[in-house]
Write a structure and sequence with these properties.
By secondary structure, the protein is of the alpha/beta class. The protein is about 40% helix and about 20% strand.
Protein backbone atom coordinates (compact mmCIF):
# COMPACT_ATOMS: atom_id res chain seq x y z
CA UNK A 1 0.00 0.00 0.00
CA UNK A 2 1.39 3.41 -0.95
CA UNK A 3 0.99 6.57 1.05
CA UNK A 4 -2.67 7.60 1.37
CA UNK A 5 -4.90 10.39 2.68
CA UNK A 6 -8.47 10.17 3.96
CA UNK A 7 -10.85 13.02 4.63
CA UNK A 8 -12.45 13.17 8.07
CA UNK A 9 -14.42 16.38 7.65
CA UNK A 10 -14.98 19.41 5.48
CA UNK A 11 -16.37 22.89 6.10
CA UNK A 12 -16.72 24.86 2.89
CA UNK A 13 -13.50 24.10 0.99
CA UNK A 14 -11.48 23.66 4.22
CA UNK A 15 -10.64 20.00 4.88
CA UNK A 16 -9.50 17.92 7.83
CA UNK A 17 -8.01 14.50 7.26
CA UNK A 18 -5.27 12.00 8.04
CA UNK A 19 -2.15 11.29 5.99
CA UNK A 20 -0.96 7.68 6.43
CA UNK A 21 2.73 7.01 5.84
CA UNK A 22 5.40 4.40 6.55
CA UNK A 23 6.35 6.32 9.68
CA UNK A 24 2.90 6.99 11.09
CA UNK A 25 -0.20 9.08 10.61
CA UNK A 26 -0.38 12.86 10.44
CA UNK A 27 -3.51 14.91 10.97
CA UNK A 28 -4.15 17.57 8.33
CA UNK A 29 -4.11 20.47 7.78
CA UNK A 30 -0.50 20.23 8.89
CA UNK A 31 2.49 22.55 9.07
CA UNK A 32 5.88 20.87 8.61
CA UNK A 33 8.87 22.55 10.31
CA UNK A 34 11.80 22.82 7.93
CA UNK A 35 14.88 20.77 8.78
CA UNK A 36 16.98 21.93 5.85
CA UNK A 37 20.25 20.14 6.58
CA UNK A 38 18.93 17.44 8.89
CA UNK A 39 17.96 19.68 11.80
CA UNK A 40 15.24 22.17 12.61
CA UNK A 41 17.60 25.02 13.46
CA UNK A 42 17.93 25.66 17.18
CA UNK A 43 15.76 22.66 18.16
CA UNK A 44 16.34 19.09 19.28
CA UNK A 45 14.08 16.44 17.79
CA UNK A 46 12.44 16.03 21.21
CA UNK A 47 11.72 19.76 21.36
CA UNK A 48 10.13 19.68 17.90
CA UNK A 49 7.99 16.72 18.94
CA UNK A 50 6.95 18.56 22.11
CA UNK A 51 5.32 21.28 19.99
CA UNK A 52 2.96 18.70 18.49
CA UNK A 53 4.76 18.55 15.13
CA UNK A 54 4.47 15.10 13.56
CA UNK A 55 6.13 15.64 10.17
CA UNK A 56 9.20 17.59 9.09
CA UNK A 57 10.87 18.55 5.82
CA UNK A 58 14.40 17.79 4.63
CA UNK A 59 16.23 19.46 1.75
CA UNK A 60 17.61 17.39 -1.11
CA UNK A 61 20.02 20.05 -2.35
CA UNK A 62 21.72 20.67 0.98
CA UNK A 63 21.82 17.02 2.03
CA UNK A 64 23.22 15.84 -1.31
CA UNK A 65 26.15 18.22 -0.81
CA UNK A 66 26.66 17.59 2.90
CA UNK A 67 26.90 14.88 4.16
CA UNK A 68 25.74 13.30 0.80
CA UNK A 69 22.72 11.07 0.31
CA UNK A 70 24.90 7.97 0.10
CA UNK A 71 26.41 8.68 3.52
CA UNK A 72 22.95 9.28 5.02
CA UNK A 73 21.85 5.91 3.61
CA UNK A 74 24.90 4.17 5.09
CA UNK A 75 24.03 5.71 8.47
CA UNK A 76 20.57 4.18 8.36
CA UNK A 77 18.61 6.91 6.57
CA UNK A 78 17.54 10.40 7.50
CA UNK A 79 15.03 9.28 10.14
CA UNK A 80 17.67 7.45 12.12
CA UNK A 81 20.40 10.02 11.64
CA UNK A 82 18.34 12.97 12.87
CA UNK A 83 16.33 11.03 15.52
CA UNK A 84 12.99 11.72 13.84
CA UNK A 85 10.58 8.80 14.07
CA UNK A 86 7.67 10.41 12.25
CA UNK A 87 7.19 11.10 8.53
CA UNK A 88 9.64 13.19 6.52
CA UNK A 89 8.96 15.00 3.27
CA UNK A 90 11.95 15.93 1.13
CA UNK A 91 11.84 18.65 -1.49
CA UNK A 92 13.41 17.88 -4.85
CA UNK A 93 16.25 20.40 -4.79
CA UNK A 94 14.76 22.25 -7.73
CA UNK A 95 14.02 25.51 -5.91
CA UNK A 96 17.52 25.80 -4.46
CA UNK A 97 19.21 24.94 -7.75
CA UNK A 98 17.10 27.44 -9.67
CA UNK A 99 18.02 30.16 -7.16
CA UNK A 100 21.74 29.71 -7.85
CA UNK A 101 21.50 31.99 -10.92
CA UNK A 102 25.01 32.18 -12.38
CA UNK A 103 26.09 28.92 -10.74
CA UNK A 104 23.78 26.66 -12.77
CA UNK A 105 23.01 25.67 -16.35
CA UNK A 106 19.57 24.36 -17.29
CA UNK A 107 18.88 22.01 -20.19
CA UNK A 108 16.06 19.68 -21.22
CA UNK A 109 17.56 16.78 -19.30
CA UNK A 110 18.27 18.51 -15.99
CA UNK A 111 20.51 21.05 -14.29
CA UNK A 112 24.29 21.28 -13.87
CA UNK A 113 25.35 23.51 -11.00
CA UNK A 114 28.23 24.53 -8.78
CA UNK A 115 28.05 23.89 -5.08
CA UNK A 116 27.71 27.05 -3.00
CA UNK A 117 29.88 25.26 -0.42
CA UNK A 118 33.07 24.47 -2.35
CA UNK A 119 32.38 25.21 -6.01
CA UNK A 120 32.32 21.54 -7.02
CA UNK A 121 30.13 20.62 -9.99
CA UNK A 122 27.00 18.51 -9.63
CA UNK A 123 24.20 17.27 -11.84
CA UNK A 124 20.53 16.97 -10.91
CA UNK A 125 18.01 15.26 -13.17
CA UNK A 126 14.56 13.97 -12.30
CA UNK A 127 16.01 10.49 -11.93
CA UNK A 128 18.89 11.60 -9.69
CA UNK A 129 16.63 13.75 -7.51
CA UNK A 130 14.26 10.83 -6.92
CA UNK A 131 17.23 8.53 -6.24
CA UNK A 132 18.63 10.93 -3.64
CA UNK A 133 15.27 11.18 -1.89
CA UNK A 134 15.04 7.38 -1.89
CA UNK A 135 18.49 7.15 -0.29
CA UNK A 136 17.42 9.66 2.35
CA UNK A 137 14.38 7.48 3.08
CA UNK A 138 11.71 10.15 2.53
CA UNK A 139 8.10 9.16 3.18
CA UNK A 140 7.03 11.83 0.68
CA UNK A 141 9.23 12.38 -2.38
CA UNK A 142 8.73 15.46 -4.54
CA UNK A 143 9.03 15.54 -8.33
CA UNK A 144 12.00 17.44 -9.71
CA UNK A 145 10.71 20.66 -11.23
CA UNK A 146 11.71 24.13 -12.29
CA UNK A 147 10.32 26.77 -9.98
CA UNK A 148 9.19 29.45 -12.42
CA UNK A 149 10.55 32.87 -11.43
CA UNK A 150 8.16 35.75 -10.82
CA UNK A 151 7.28 37.78 -12.77
CA UNK A 152 7.29 35.74 -15.97
CA UNK A 153 5.63 36.29 -19.32
CA UNK A 154 2.99 33.80 -20.42
CA UNK A 155 5.48 32.34 -22.89
CA UNK A 156 8.20 31.95 -20.24
CA UNK A 157 5.77 30.44 -17.73
CA UNK A 158 4.40 28.01 -20.33
CA UNK A 159 7.85 26.80 -21.36
CA UNK A 160 8.92 26.37 -17.74
CA UNK A 161 5.73 24.56 -16.73
CA UNK A 162 5.88 22.15 -19.67
CA UNK A 163 9.48 21.31 -18.86
CA UNK A 164 8.40 20.54 -15.29
CA UNK A 165 5.60 18.31 -16.61
CA UNK A 166 8.09 16.30 -18.68
CA UNK A 167 10.29 16.02 -15.62
CA UNK A 168 7.26 14.95 -13.56
CA UNK A 169 6.68 12.01 -15.92
CA UNK A 170 10.34 11.00 -15.61
CA UNK A 171 10.16 11.37 -11.81
CA UNK A 172 7.14 9.06 -11.76
CA UNK A 173 8.99 6.40 -13.77
CA UNK A 174 12.05 6.69 -11.50
CA UNK A 175 10.12 6.41 -8.24
CA UNK A 176 10.25 3.01 -6.53
CA UNK A 177 6.84 2.25 -4.97
CA UNK A 178 6.96 0.82 -1.47
CA UNK A 179 4.54 0.60 1.40
CA UNK A 180 3.73 3.90 3.07
CA UNK A 181 5.76 6.02 0.66
CA UNK A 182 4.54 8.31 -2.10
CA UNK A 183 5.45 10.77 -4.82
CA UNK A 184 3.85 14.20 -5.16
CA UNK A 185 3.49 16.09 -8.43
CA UNK A 186 3.96 19.86 -8.45
CA UNK A 187 1.57 22.22 -10.23
CA UNK A 188 3.32 25.11 -11.98
CA UNK A 189 2.17 27.87 -14.34
CA UNK A 190 2.93 31.11 -12.50
CA UNK A 191 -0.18 33.31 -12.16
CA UNK A 192 -1.76 32.23 -15.46
CA UNK A 193 -5.05 30.39 -15.02
CA UNK A 194 -4.84 28.44 -18.28
CA UNK A 195 -1.32 27.24 -17.51
CA UNK A 196 -2.28 26.13 -14.00
CA UNK A 197 -5.19 24.16 -15.48
CA UNK A 198 -2.93 22.59 -18.11
CA UNK A 199 -0.42 21.63 -15.43
CA UNK A 200 -3.10 19.98 -13.27
CA UNK A 201 -4.38 18.04 -16.28
CA UNK A 202 -0.87 16.80 -17.09
CA UNK A 203 -0.15 15.72 -13.53
CA UNK A 204 -3.46 13.96 -12.93
CA UNK A 205 -3.00 12.07 -16.19
CA UNK A 206 0.32 10.76 -14.85
CA UNK A 207 -1.12 10.04 -11.40
CA UNK A 208 0.48 10.84 -8.02
CA UNK A 209 -0.13 10.07 -4.36
CA UNK A 210 -0.46 13.81 -3.67
CA UNK A 211 -0.33 17.16 -5.44
CA UNK A 212 1.63 20.27 -4.53
CA UNK A 213 1.08 23.82 -5.70
CA UNK A 214 4.47 25.37 -6.43
CA UNK A 215 5.68 28.68 -7.76
CA UNK A 216 3.70 30.82 -5.31
CA UNK A 217 4.78 33.09 -2.44
CA UNK A 218 7.61 34.24 -4.70
CA UNK A 219 6.67 37.92 -4.85
CA UNK A 220 3.15 37.95 -6.24
CA UNK A 221 1.54 38.97 -2.94
CA UNK A 222 -1.04 37.19 -0.81
CA UNK A 223 -4.10 38.35 -2.74
CA UNK A 224 -2.76 37.00 -6.03
CA UNK A 225 -1.58 33.80 -4.37
CA UNK A 226 -5.06 33.18 -3.00
CA UNK A 227 -6.62 33.98 -6.37
CA UNK A 228 -4.41 31.38 -8.05
CA UNK A 229 -5.31 28.85 -5.36
CA UNK A 230 -8.98 29.58 -5.97
CA UNK A 231 -8.50 28.65 -9.62
CA UNK A 232 -6.15 25.69 -9.11
CA UNK A 233 -7.27 23.77 -6.03
CA UNK A 234 -10.80 22.88 -7.27
CA UNK A 235 -9.18 21.13 -10.25
CA UNK A 236 -7.14 18.78 -8.04
CA UNK A 237 -8.39 15.30 -7.06
CA UNK A 238 -10.66 15.38 -4.02
CA UNK A 239 -9.18 12.21 -2.52
CA UNK A 240 -5.52 13.27 -2.53
CA UNK A 241 -3.55 15.56 -0.19
CA UNK A 242 -2.77 19.09 -1.37
CA UNK A 243 0.47 20.78 -0.40
CA UNK A 244 1.25 24.49 -0.78
CA UNK A 245 5.03 24.71 -0.94
CA UNK A 246 7.06 27.28 0.99
CA UNK A 247 4.12 29.01 2.71
CA UNK A 248 4.10 30.95 4.94
CA UNK A 249 2.91 33.57 7.41
CA UNK A 250 0.09 32.64 9.82
CA UNK A 251 -2.45 34.57 7.73
CA UNK A 252 -1.26 32.69 4.63
CA UNK A 253 -1.94 29.37 6.36
CA UNK A 254 -5.38 30.36 7.57
CA UNK A 255 -6.54 31.71 4.23
CA UNK A 256 -5.02 28.85 2.24
CA UNK A 257 -6.77 26.25 4.42
CA UNK A 258 -9.95 28.10 3.52
CA UNK A 259 -9.15 27.25 -0.12
CA UNK A 260 -8.65 23.53 0.62
CA UNK A 261 -4.89 23.23 1.21
CA UNK A 262 -3.85 20.38 3.55
CA UNK A 263 -0.06 20.70 3.95
CA UNK A 264 2.43 23.54 4.42
CA UNK A 265 6.11 24.14 5.08
CA UNK A 266 8.14 27.31 5.51
CA UNK A 267 11.33 28.60 7.13
CA UNK A 268 9.51 31.68 8.46
CA UNK A 269 8.89 30.50 12.06
CA UNK A 270 12.48 29.33 12.56
CA UNK A 271 14.15 32.16 10.67
CA UNK A 272 12.02 34.76 12.44
CA UNK A 273 12.92 33.25 15.79
CA UNK A 274 16.60 33.67 15.02
CA UNK A 275 15.92 37.31 14.11
CA UNK A 276 14.06 38.09 17.33
CA UNK A 277 10.49 37.94 16.00
CA UNK A 278 7.58 36.06 17.53
CA UNK A 279 4.16 35.18 16.14
CA UNK A 280 1.42 35.25 18.76
CA UNK A 281 -2.34 35.04 19.12
CA UNK A 282 -2.24 38.84 19.47
CA UNK A 283 -0.09 39.63 16.46
CA UNK A 284 3.62 39.79 15.73
CA UNK A 285 6.31 40.97 18.15
CA UNK A 286 9.87 42.16 17.67
CA UNK A 287 11.56 41.24 20.94
CA UNK A 288 14.58 43.40 20.10
CA UNK A 289 12.47 46.52 20.60
CA UNK A 290 13.31 48.47 23.76
CA UNK A 291 9.65 48.54 24.84
CA UNK A 292 10.04 44.92 26.00
CA UNK A 293 12.99 45.63 28.32
CA UNK A 294 10.80 46.00 31.45
CA UNK A 295 7.89 43.79 30.37
CA UNK A 296 7.49 40.94 32.84
CA UNK A 297 4.62 39.40 30.92
CA UNK A 298 4.74 36.34 28.67
CA UNK A 299 5.20 36.41 24.92
CA UNK A 300 1.72 34.97 24.49
CA UNK A 301 -0.59 34.25 27.43
CA UNK A 302 -2.41 31.64 25.33
CA UNK A 303 0.73 29.59 24.60
CA UNK A 304 2.06 26.70 26.67
CA UNK A 305 5.64 26.58 25.32
CA UNK A 306 8.64 27.08 27.66
CA UNK A 307 9.34 30.56 26.29
CA UNK A 308 5.86 31.66 27.38
CA UNK A 309 5.37 29.70 30.60
CA UNK A 310 8.84 30.05 32.12
CA UNK A 311 10.23 33.34 30.84
CA UNK A 312 9.21 36.95 30.34
CA UNK A 313 9.43 39.23 27.34
CA UNK A 314 12.02 41.23 29.28
CA UNK A 315 14.26 38.18 29.72
CA UNK A 316 14.07 37.20 26.07
CA UNK A 317 14.80 40.82 25.11
CA UNK A 318 17.84 40.70 27.40
CA UNK A 319 19.08 37.47 25.79
CA UNK A 320 18.80 38.97 22.33
CA UNK A 321 20.62 42.16 23.33
CA UNK A 322 23.43 40.06 24.82
CA UNK A 323 23.47 37.81 21.73
CA UNK A 324 22.94 34.75 23.88
CA UNK A 325 21.89 31.75 21.76
CA UNK A 326 19.09 30.87 24.18
CA UNK A 327 17.06 33.86 22.97
CA UNK A 328 16.68 32.69 19.36
CA UNK A 329 16.19 29.11 20.58
CA UNK A 330 13.28 30.11 22.82
CA UNK A 331 11.67 32.20 20.09
CA UNK A 332 12.08 29.39 17.56
CA UNK A 333 10.42 26.95 19.96
CA UNK A 334 7.59 29.40 20.54
CA UNK A 335 7.04 30.09 16.84
CA UNK A 336 6.88 26.40 15.95
CA UNK A 337 4.52 25.86 18.88
CA UNK A 338 2.32 28.72 17.70
CA UNK A 339 2.16 27.31 14.17
CA UNK A 340 1.26 23.84 15.48
CA UNK A 341 -1.42 25.27 17.78
CA UNK A 342 -2.84 27.31 14.90
CA UNK A 343 -3.14 24.21 12.70
CA UNK A 344 -4.73 22.19 15.53
CA UNK A 345 -7.23 24.98 16.14
CA UNK A 346 -8.19 24.98 12.47
CA UNK A 347 -8.53 21.17 12.40
CA UNK A 348 -10.89 21.22 15.37
CA UNK A 349 -12.95 24.00 13.82
CA UNK A 350 -13.31 22.17 10.49
CA UNK A 351 -14.45 18.99 12.22
CA UNK A 352 -16.93 20.98 14.30
CA UNK A 353 -18.32 22.77 11.21
CA UNK A 354 -17.36 26.23 12.47
CA UNK A 355 -14.26 27.09 10.49
CA UNK A 356 -15.35 30.58 9.43
CA UNK A 357 -16.29 31.57 12.98
CA UNK A 358 -12.93 30.35 14.26
CA UNK A 359 -11.05 32.04 11.42
CA UNK A 360 -12.74 35.34 12.26
CA UNK A 361 -11.78 34.94 15.93
CA UNK A 362 -8.16 34.19 15.02
CA UNK A 363 -7.92 37.22 12.75
CA UNK A 364 -9.53 39.42 15.38
CA UNK A 365 -6.91 38.25 17.88
CA UNK A 366 -4.12 39.30 15.53
CA UNK A 367 -5.56 42.80 15.58
CA UNK A 368 -5.58 43.00 19.38
CA UNK A 369 -2.90 45.40 20.70
CA UNK A 370 0.05 43.60 22.29
Amino acid sequence: MTLSWRRLGQDGAARAGVLSTAHGEVETPVFMPVGTAGTVKGMTADAVRATGARMILGNTYHLMLRPTAERVARLGGLHRMVDWHGPILTDSGGFQVMSLAGLRKLDADGVTFQSHVDGSKHRLTPERSVEIQHLLGADVTMCFDECTPYPATHEQAASSMRLSMRWAERSRRAFVPREGHGLFGIVQGSTYDDLRAESVASLTAIGFEGYAVGGLAVGEGQAEMLRVLGVTVPLLPQDKPRYLMGVGMPSDLLRSVRHGIDMFDCVIPTRSGRMGRAYTSRGNLNLRNARHADDGGPLDPDCGCPACTRHSRAYIHHLLKCEEMLGPMLLTWHNIQYYQDLMARMRRAILAGRFEDEAAAIEQGWETPT
